[in-house]
Design a protein that fits this description.
Structural class: alpha/beta
Number of strands: 29
Number of helices: 23
Oligomer: single chain
Largest sheet: 10 strands, mixed
Strand content: 5-15%
Helix content: 25-40%
Shape: globular
């Protein structure tokens, strides 16, 4: 049974119709907890002394995080803490505790309701290790950028320490690390399929996504006297279950039905004639049409068990495909997956926040500063975002390598224009060091503000995981007028000198609105604009669900035209990925030739990092393509797994680096492309080697300082025409590359 809370705090039940987007109670409509009389804290307390100053004898909720505590709406724990505070609860913060014993976890005393545990804004493994599994030397979310201040798999470790400190206190885990590990998942760092983090952490409940809606309901229900074991029906949560309750219909994932009306459009997720592998033989199982007699709100989709997907990569790919098809809040059903003698029960995603609610979240009394405990220590992540503003959430791009959609959802949640303008004024008037420049007005993407499906009924029934691949859906509203209006109003504010756009731009959407491109290029680009084609070749692009280079070329033409019209010298900085599933050595060679032809030389590049639960990670692990039907004889995806091949792909991206020339010469000879070795302009690498280069391994090279993505416009290193010449110059203009 699902519940709503009325403004008086009374609970009433309802049965949902998942074929249309449900209504949900406003998160600020609950009756406030009695502790509201204490009012908001200047900072959420981190010590008993601060609690005493606030006249608290205890905390109702204690949040444990792997990040330094920065009271800013870009830091997840600050948001959750302030949202719970606004409900009248006393919230304490334990930031970056010493996990070697329980002392830090007990320093605020025993919470009255629960511990909330997160690894922080980043997955702890991504935070600590590179895509080559090497330990990073720094941590942007730690004072001084110091590395090693959080443990591997922080959610597991923190939750276990909380349990040791106070055995009878409920533990709720969340954040991106928990979100991406809510089912059995491939773990790149151990190279195996791991159990749901709910089991490994021994937590009582998992919340996924941004989680404001579900954490507010959890807090009020616990405060009303319900036990943690009774909270099984909250959307956006996962719990452990012994069996399927009475009154529910269980459907095996290999017989998944097709819900709702799908409008005719190119659909890589179409379920027609789809199949998945049997667990026992090479046969395929036909997906059957929708079974209308079953109540979708009482239907459970059973994925293959953890023990099955652990041993069978094909079934892992199938489970990943089915899981991603059940992520639309408008039609998703409960998913269960057996782990030993228990099920992981995953409720449908939470109903997205309405504009009024999102405004309320961002207008809470954040100080927008690090906690005074850190003194004058620099926290790199804070320095990067302290003058930036988040205007929306979510992403409907569906890039298979990205975790944004799995965490924030694909439905765009936008703030109101007035709320955004008010935040700019707050920064202008109260944040120390503000010089009149807003560093970003964006979000997961720069230009999805207020974009949505034209018809809410279609949106609720749709099962596409991308609204823009293989082409922009004709049901998608691509009107950039609200964003243009916002830009114009923001830059007209007194005291605002410049509004920059630092978020990644979805250029295939931007070209739908030349007026937007003109506005962006004329007023909001600080010389360089980041975009992410990710690759030039059809093979890897089709596995990424990214548009072809035709969209890039169209955008570049508009960018150059409007830059010239504005009398500005401005340049695009494109990002690319090496070693993504579906990428061959020939694909990387063609990308390197494109980079050379267009005068791009990247000193910082990225190779694919398989994050838990992503579709591209399923490709990496299984060698199968979950974007289409999965069987033992279905399409095989080429995967660069070995360190040698991954480094070769990285070397192609940095074709200009003499350290890579020996590797590239050998590879070009093996590929039958020795014609690209030579000293002419048409060659990729020279046939000579500068003295003292080409000898260090990848891990021994020095990267003590951030290097630029150099282009023919901002100072390419001079390529020596003779062996005796040295590469001594570098451009001074820099832009950060991922």
């Amino acid at each position: 049974m699902l519940y709503l809370y009325t403004r008086t705090g009374r609970r009433r039940s309802y049965v949902s119709d998942l074929n249309c987007m449900q209504a949900a109670p406003d998160i600020f409509s609950y009756r406030k907890h009695w502790a509201k009389k204490f009012g908001p804290a200047p900072f959420l307390p981190m010590t008993r002394e601060e609690m005493t100053q606030l006249h608290w004898d205890s905390c109702d909720i204690i949040l444990v995080t792997g990040d330094a505590y920065v009271d800013h709406p870009s830091f997840g724990m600050a948001v959750i803490g302030r949202v719970l505070e606004a409900q009248g609860f006393r919230v304490g913060i334990i930031a970056q505790p010493d996990w070697r014993d329980t002392a830090d976890f007990a320093r605020l005393g025993k919470p009255n309701l629960f511990f909330g545990v997160t690894a922080g804004n980043m997955d702890s493994m991504v935070n600590r290790y590179t895509s080559d599994r090497k330990i990073r030397s720094n941590d942007a979310y730690t004072p001084g950028g110091e590395g090693g201040k959080r443990p591997d798999r922080s959610v597991n470790v923190y939750a276990q320490r909380c349990r040791e400190a106070f055995k009878d206190v409920p533990i709720i885990i969340g954040g991106i690390e928990a979100s991406l590990r809510r089912i059995a998942h491939y773990d790149y760092w151990s190279d195996k399929v791991r159990r749901s983090v709910l089991l490994d952490s021994k937590a009582d409940l998992l919340v996924y996504g941004n989680a404001e809606r579900q954490i507010v309901e959890i807090a009020h229900r616990l405060a009303a006297g319900e036990s943690i074991g009774a909270l099984r029906d909250i959307r956006g949560t996962a719990v452990l279950s012994k069996a399927i309750p009475d009154g529910w219909f269980e459907m095996d994932s290999t017989h998944l039905d097709r819900p709702g009306t799908i409008q005719p459009h190119p659909d890589p997720y179409a379920m027609q004639e789809s199949a998945c592998a049997s667990n026992n033989d090479g046969a395929t199982v036909q997906f059957i049409p929708r079974v209308s007699k079953h109540d979708r709100s009482r239907t459970v989709i059973r994925l293959p068990a953890y023990e099955t997907v652990r041993e069978d990569p094909v079934m892992y790919a199938h489970a990943s495909r089915v899981f991603h098809l059940e992520t639309n809040p408008g039609n998703a059903r409960v998913i269960v997956q057996r782990h030993g003698d228990r099920d992981i029960w995953i409720n449908p995603p939470p109903i997205p926040l309405e504009t009024k609610e999102l405004d309320g979240v961002f207008e809470l009394p954040y100080t927008r500063r690090p906690h005074p405990h850190y003194g004058e220590q620099n926290i790199p992540a804070y320095e990067m975002i302290r003058f930036s503003i988040n205007i929306m959430r979510g992403c409907f791009g569906g890039c298979t390598f990205c975790s944004i959609t799995e965490h924030e959802g694909r439905i765009i949640q936008s703030r109101s224009e007035d709320s955004i303008i008010h935040e700019i004024e707050t920064i202008r008037d109260s944040v120390p060091g503000f010089t009149g420049v807003i560093s970003d007005l964006g979000g997961p993407t720069a230009n999805m503000y207020r974009l949505a499906c034209k018809d809410p009924k279609i949106e609720s029934a749709c099962r596409r995981l991308s609204c823009v691949y293989p082409g922009i859906c004709h049901n998608l509203n691509t009107n950039h007028a609200p964003l243009i209006k916002l830009y114009r109003r923001a830059r007209a504010l007194p005291g605002i000198k410049k509004i920059l756009i630092g978020s990644g731009l979805r250029y295939d959407l931007a070209v739908e609105s030349p007026e937007y491109v003109k506005e962006l290029v004329t007023y909001h680009v600080g010389g360089y604009l980041k975009i992410a084609p990710e690759h030039t070749e059809t093979g890897p692009l089709s596995k990424m669900m990214k548009p072809g280079m035709g969209a890039y070329d169209r955008f570049k033409e508009l960018f150059d035209r409007y830059s010239k019209a504005a009398g500005k010298e401005q340049y695009l900085i494109p990002y690319f990925i090496g070693a993504h599933p579906g990428t061959s050595n020939e694909d990387m060679l063609n990308l390197a030739l494109w980079l050379k032809h267009n005068g791009f030389r990247a000193d910082q590049v990225q190779t694919f990092l398989p994050s838990p639960m992503a579709l591209a990670t399923a490709m990496y692990h299984s060698g199968k393509n979950p974007l289409h039907k999965v069987s033992r004889s279905s399409e095989t995806v080429s995967v660069a797994k070995g360190l040698r091949q991954r480094r070769l792909h990285k070397a192609f991206l940095r074709y200009h680096d003499p350290e890579n020339w020996p590797t590239l010469r050998k590879a070009l000879q093996e590929m039958g492309r020795a014609d690209l070795i030579g000293n002419g302009k048409r060659h990729l690498v020279p046939n000579w080697q500068p003295k003292g280069t080409g000898e260090d391994s990848e891990g021994r090279r020095q990267h003590a300082r951030s290097r630029p993505f150099l282009t023919q416009h901002n100072g390419l290193p001079k390529t020596p025409s003779q062996p005796a010449h040295k590469n001594k110059t570098r451009g001074r203009n820099r832009s950060r590359s991922r």
